[in-house]
Write a structure and sequence with these properties.
This protein is α/β, with parallel strands linked by helices. The protein has a single domain, classed as Rossmann fold (3-Layer(aba) Sandwich). It is built from eight helices and ten strands. The longest helix is centred in the first third of the chain and has 13 residues. The two termini are 25 Å apart.
Length: 237
Amino acid sequence: MPNSFFRFKQFTVYQELAAMKVGTDGVLLGAWATIGDNVNRILDIGTGTGIVALMLAQRSTAQIDAVEIDESSAKQAKANFELSQWANRLAVHQTDFQSYSKSCVLKYDLVVSNPPYFSRSLKSPELARTLVRHTDLLPHNQLLEGVSLVLSATGSFCAVFPYTEGNVFVAIAATHGLYCNRRLNIYSIPGKPVIRVLLEFSFTRGLMEEQDIYIHNKEGHYTEAYKNLTKDFYLAF
């Protein structure tokens, strides 16, 4: 059983109600997403526990909206937001992203998502967990259609995927006028395949900046690069 809460340096994430628990994917996304001086409004798609939104609140002064389709997860995120020191800048909307994007009159400087990415794999017998892990209710085309509606002309969209799904997503995104301009390949240890990719998109086509990061070294210790990326959040660093 996972812990009912996960404590970070400046906030605590309770997760007993959420379909998906705190994981490395979300932490990496929250630490890596670019927040420039012009980022005043952020949208987190599929917020779950609210961890990514909380990390971005710590890193910025932006107003942050979070969308979550699962009712229990949305309640969990709302509770976590209200317990944080940034409660006045965080709001959760319990709805599907397709509806939200079509009705939203705002434009966001940064959109982030730790999206569902499995489409043909075996599914969990737990419905809520299936919904947040699989693309049934948010196919990638519909995710990208929604992002293209809510992202500002100069904004960025950041997301995390497994390696193969990420490569496919880059190709699909280009058909929606969203181009990958930054990429971080994540390895568990040297000598192993890429386990995740962090991707940043914008409406501007240009050269892609690509980097690699290893979570552990060959001795099994956390690498300095990983610690530097996450040190503002993890208590251990």
